[in-house]
Design goal:
Aldehyde Dehydrogenase, Chain A, domain 2; six-stranded mixed sheet; 25 strands; Aldehyde Dehydrogenase, Chain A, domain 1; alpha/beta; 477 residues
């Protein structure tokens, strides 16, 4: 169970300022707990504290940063089931998915601990011509300064961790605004960080209403903004961010190609998982499935039968695979998109209806390409199914999207795999598996409307640091 109330964290300290934010159990709709909500004064104080802590964090030795991160690994492991149950309640995440996210949280902090002591630079030869005779150089990475983080509702622990852990590894103080739907995960991370000897002001975790949170974006004391969420919000924040660098992890409309030589049973099994794990609420959830015409009928029959047998229900039940979507408004939107596609000639092979926040796992065949269920991000348990005759045409169909996060290609043809890697306008191409695959040390991010920059600890550290060069002249040379 959740605590009766949670504080926010301001300059490393728990503050029970109020109980203004009600957090609901997403399955029952009942209020599960209450959270302190930060006002503009608290946000300003958190930014001021992070700015003041910049020098102390820069001087905080790498081995001590590693100790902080490993303390988190230890504590997260000890509290594994507690963290999983919190996810299950605040996000409606099926308990098996919740445990998977806690495992990834631990991985993310452990990788950050490893990276914290190997942030290196390079010695450079500058004698590329006679004018540079006697000159040498070296460069290193230094922390960029106070960072602003805004995390989403769908992975309340691990997507917060992908901002917090690299910041601690490089030595950047930060302020974070977690999603109001699901603030508990980030606050539990804050509770653990408060147990450490981080410099005062190193972190603030401040749930806040969107309409009162402009300082997270506009304040010039903040040297980087990292946002994960919807494209509409993300690009608007970038426009308001001023001179600071911006990292955006935004939406997706992930496609998966099943070529004629694929292992049919394996492809069906993996795509059922990739489309419907987390109840489809993942940026890299499979949304568009393109199957070669030679195996299309066999794939469709097996796939639809598996989808019909997915268990919906209480996310706390061990065998539940489909839990609630985040809100009834989103369930209504999904059902409306399916009904609109059906009116335009698509076939609904299974599902398509909702009961409150519970949306049935749904397969839509041959929707028009301009309808929402094909062109936009569904972010729920809905996929579309189409056939193709030519592999290169399938690649062009994948690219015919405003999104470009990841794509999956089931093929045994090495040359086709490389062609997909070369041609697809996405951040990542996964061969022999679904685009929903992610390991937390790999570079992860998208192009087009899917965002800017890359997560994955080493790559996030690059965004949160600057190169500082030193040139040395030898007057005797």
């Amino acid at each position: 169970m959740l605590n009766s109330a949670y504080p926010y964290y301001l300059a490393n300290r728990a503050v029970f300022a109020n109980q203004d934010l009600a957090v609901t159990d997403k399955f029952t709709g009942e209020v599960a707990t209450r959270v302190a909500l930060a006002d503009a004064a608290a946000i300003d104080a958190g930014i001021a504290a992070a700015d003041a802590a910049t020098e102390a964090m820069r001087r905080f030795p790498a081995y001590r940063r590693q100790e902080v991160l490993m303390h988190c690994v230890s504590r997260f492991t000890e509290r594994f089931e507690e963290f999983a149950l919190a996810l299950c309640i605040e996000a409606g995440k099926p308990i098996q998915d919740a445990r998977g996210e806690v495992s990834r949280l631990i991985d993310t902090f452990r990788v950050a601990a490893e990276e914290s002591v190997r942030i290196n630079g390079e010695v450079m030869n500058l004698e590329i011509s006679a004018r540079a005779k006697g000159y040498s150089a070296m460069w290193k990475r230094v922390p960029i300064g106070a960072c602003s983080f805004i995390s989403p509702f769908n992975f309340p622990l691990n997507l917060a961790a992908h901002k917090i852990a690299p910041a601690l590894a490089i030595g950047c103080p930060f302020v974070m605004k977690p999603a109001s739907y699901t603030p508990i995960g980030a606050l539990m991370i804050g509770e653990t960080l408060a147990e450490t000897d981080l410099p005062q002001g190193a972190f603030s975790i401040l749930p806040a209403r969107r309409d009162g949170a402009d300082l997270f974006t506009t304040d010039e004391r903040l040297k980087l903004l990292s946002f994960t969420g919807s494209p509409g919000v993300g690009w608007a924040l970038k426009a308001k961010a001023g001179k600071k660098p911006v990292v955006l992890e935004l939406g997706g409309n992930a496609a998966c190609v099943v070529d004629g030589d694929a292992d049919l049973e394996d492809a069906v099994e993996r795509i059922v998982f990739g489309a419907f794990y987390q109840s489809g609420q993942s940026c890299i959830s499979v949304q568009r499935i393109l199957v070669h015409e030679s195996i299309y009928e066999a794939f469709r029959e097996r796939f639809v039968e598996r989808v019909k047998n997915l268990k919906m229900g209480n996310p706390r039940d061990e065998d539940t695979f489909i839990g609630p979507v985040i809100s009834e408004r989103d369930a209504e939107r999904l059902q409306g998109w399916v009904e609109d596609a059906e009116r335009q000639g698509a076939a609904v092979l299974c599902g398509g209806r909702r009961d409150g926040v519970m949306m049935q796992p749904t397969v839509v065949e041959n929707p028009p390409r301009d309808c929402d269920i094909y062109a936009e991000e569904a972010f729920g348990p809905v996929v579309v199914l189409n056939r193709f005759a030519d592999f290169d045409t399938a690649l062009r169909d994948i690219n015919d999207s405003k999104f470009g996060l990841q794509a999956g290609i089931f093929t045994r043809d090495l040359y086709k795999a490389h062609r997909a890697w070369e041609e697809l306008e996405v951040g990542g191409v996964v061969i022999g598996d679904v685009p929903s695959f992610r390991v937390d040390n790999m570079p992860y991010g998208g192009v087009k409307d899917s965002g800017l920059g890359r997560e994955g600890i080493r790559f996030a550290i690059e965004d949160m640091s600057e190169i500082r060069l030193m040139v040395i002249r030898d007057p005797q040379a």
